[in-house]
Design a protein that fits this description.
Length: 417
């Protein structure tokens, strides 16, 4: 015997739990369940925003979203924007704190409070949650769908696929297996790659500077073409580069077919000519120093010394030995310190997966499949991913709310027939 529900949500992550709760907010008597393969729901949300959960952002414009067709996200983000998300969470008891960059966090600054709020609302309002229950198969039936799991089976008129993709790895329930099930049902997928992830580079220099954090303008180049750029903290690591600026520009590293490089501008506020003038001036007033001390007070000490060595100069030589050509070389290195990329640190370390379920098969206002009525896909499994800054959770919430609204409409239509 199968369990029967009006709506069955597969995946108890941010998107799935929001969808189930919004359905219950609309109709307390609706039979709604969440099927989750892990022992607990919302395992990923616990680790978001370094345990503080960057829940959304004041600026959720479309330019922060990516995919083959980012426009797919426009309706959901406009109609279920950050204000609607804030109101929804207020109803669950979570109030927001915005930082100076417009990033929103729960006022408690604890991701666990977002998890608890979603979990408690579901429990208090009768969402049935089945944990350690992995969906193996989905079959269309005359009246809806039959869902087969490692335990029991479920029947529902409406099903919502909210299983996420690969980012964060197995320990967070991110295995991407649902894509194969959907492929067998005829759905197309877009190549999946890790995004918001550390970049592996040629590492002789990064290893020697391991642990040093600087602020720089990081640019990802494919050949001569600048693909993405961000000014923020950069961290040197034994495998390459990390830090917010690097995560921000990482999306295309594994998507580009040609060679990519990362360029660091170590003095982004100053144009090339100004940096050159500064070096000439220093060389004049500090001419009695050794080169190892030339950049003291201008660059991080060890980074400054690395720049001297990269220019082919000796740290022990006197500043007075510098030539016109040396000034030019030093300026170029400071404004464009290059690293050949060798990939990323992979899905387990990434915050989001780029690619996924091709959005062409879904309606952008409802998230419902164009071919299977009553089958919805929401959140990260769809080929939409956002920048760092609360954009991925916002997408999970917005898409979940679209689906919930459409399910309510379908169920109300049924009642009126
Ligand atoms: C370390 C880290 C930090 C992050 N920080 C932020 C942040 O601060 N702000 C932000 O906006 N975004 C952040 N993100 C991204 C954001 O967390 C995700 O984009 C978002 O949680 C995706 O939600 P989802 O519900 O679509 O998928 P998920 O959260 O991945 O949930 C999917 C659920 O489905 C379950 N599942 C999968 N397959 C099956 C199956 N076959 N049967 C049953 N259940 C299944 C999984 O176990 C999982 O619980 C971060 C991600 C990581 C990894």
């Amino acid at each position: 015997m199968s369990r029967i529900y009006s709506a069955c949500v597969i995946g108890g992550g941010a998107a799935g739990m929001t969808c189930a709760n919004v359905l219950k907010m609309n109709d307390k008597n609706l039979s709604v369940c969440v099927i989750e393969q892990m022992p607990r729901v919302l395992k990923k949300v616990i680790v978001t925003g370094n345990g503080r959960c960057n829940i959304t952002n004041r600026d959720i414009s479309l330019s922060h979203y990516h995919g083959e067709n980012p426009l797919f996200a426009a309706y959901a983000l406009k109609n279920f924007d950050n204000f609607i998300v804030e109101v929804f969470f207020n109803k669950l008891g979570v109030i927001f704190h915005y930082d100076e960059r417009g990033r929103a966090y729960p006022y408690s600054l604890q991701a666990s409070s977002v998890v608890d709020a979603l979990r408690l609302y579901a429990a208090d309002n009768g969402v049935d949650i089945f944990t350690e229950t992995e969906v193996y198969n989905i079959e269309k039936t005359k009246s809806g769908y039959l869902i087969t799991t490692n335990k029991e089976s479920f029947k529902a008129e409406n099903i919502v696929i909210a299983t996420g993709l690969l980012s964060g790895g197995d320990s967070l329930g991110s295995n991407g297996k649902m894509l194969s099930i959907l492929k067998n049902m005829g759905y197309k997928t877009v190549k999946v790659t890790p995004s918001l992830v550390q970049i592996k580079t040629e590492n002789t220099l990064t290893k020697s500077l391991k642990g040093i954090k600087i602020t720089a303008k990081a640019t990802l180049f494919s050949g001569d073409r600048a693909i993405s750029q961000n000014t923020d903290e950069v961290l040197f690591c034994d495998y390459g580069l990390s830090g917010p600026a690097i995560l921000y520009i990482s999306r295309e590293v594994e998507r580009e077919t040609g060679d990519t490089t990362v360029s660091l501008d170590l003095m982004p506020e100053y144009p090339h000519q100004k940096v050159y003038d500064m070096i000439r001036y220093r060389a004049g007033v500090l001419s009695t120093r050794k080169l190892e001390d030339l950049f003291l007070g201008m660059l991080n000490k060890r980074v400054g010394q690395a720049v001297i060595k990269l220019a082919g100069l000796k740290l022990g030589d006197s500043v007075s030995t510098l030539t016109e050509n040396d000034y030019k070389k030093l300026t170029s290195i400071i404004k464009d310190l290059r690293f050949k990329t060798l990939g990323t640190t992979g899905f387990n370390n990434s915050q989001v997966t780029a690619g996924g379920l091709d959005t062409a098969a879904f309606d952008d206002e409802t998230m419902m499949s164009q071919t299977h009525g009553g089958l919805y896909a929401i959140g990260e499994i769809l080929d939409i991913d956002g920048d760092c800054g609360g954009y991925n959770l916002q997408w999970a919430f917005s898409s979940a709310m679209c689906a919930a609204e459409s399910i309510m409409d379908r169920l109300n239509e049924d009642e009126n027939i």
